[in-house]
Amino acid sequence: MIYLYTDLTKKGLSDYQIKKYVKDKKLYMIKKGIYSTKTDYNYLELIAKKHPNAVFTLSTACYCYGLIKNSNPPYYIATKQKDRKINDDNVKQIFMTDSLYNIGASKITYQGFNIMIYDLERLLIEVVRNKVNLDYDIYHEIIESYKKIKNLLNKNKLNDYIVNFKDQKIVTRINKEVFENI
What is the pTM of this model? Predict the structure, then answer.
């Protein structure tokens, strides 16, 4: 599990106790102010802890949902347009218009820790919107996975989301590539 320095102090640990835990290898310092209980921590957990308002999207979110088999850095996150730039080579930050940022964002538990992630319907819109930015094979794998689960998608929710994007190409592409057999 990953803890911020402030999390540890809220639990009643002093600076001295934190340093002692690190020395005794009960805690491991990842970066200044960030600690883990294990040496092999999950980088997604680190991102979620460091940037609690960031929403996982695109191939990173698809990997979390099992829509693709592999996900390598960079990890894709969406933030509000005026949020501070994240300086991390392993993170690809997408600045989202404030009116679109919260649509479909939800908090889930992934591998024992909480993350913010777009739901399947919003994620489909993001994937289609960013088709040209995704590797062809990854895009194809995601669309094939969506075809397999198309009956699980909430079409009303999807339609409610699409209205906010004001781009008819999204509707056309989703209907053609995912719902073609319906």
Answer: 0.92
